[in-house]
Design goal:
The protein is mainly α and 94 residues long. The chain contains 4 helices and no strands. The protein has one domain.
């Protein structure tokens, strides 16, 4: 078995800078997504595969593969936030 080569000081600093920039980018994208669409990144991760699926339909197992074990939690949260009468929550023209 070979010994693990640790990062030197320069590499560690670069890696930390990359991780900090990535976290900041993800925070900014999440805030923009919530502000523009009222969706979290997790909501988007669930809804995106449906939006690009043929006829907006995916088998549950295929959708589950795309979001792994978050599927049940995300669906429960989304379904509890959908009004029983969508027009009651907006100005629907009848």
């Amino acid at each position: 078995m070979t010994d693990t080569r640790w990062l030197d000081a320069r590499e560690a600093s670069l890696w930390q800078s990359y991780r900090d920039a990535y976290r900041e980018l993800m925070r900014a994208l999440e805030a923009r997504l919530i502000g523009n669409a009222g969706l979290s990144g997790a909501d988007y991760a669930l809804l995106h595969p449906l939006s690009v699926a043929e006829h907006g339909v995916l088998r549950t197992r295929d959708l589950g593969r795309s979001v792994e074990d978050q599927l049940t939690v995300l669906l429960d949260r989304i379904l509890t936030n959908i009004p029983a009468d969508p027009c009651a929550a907006s100005d629907c023209d009848e």
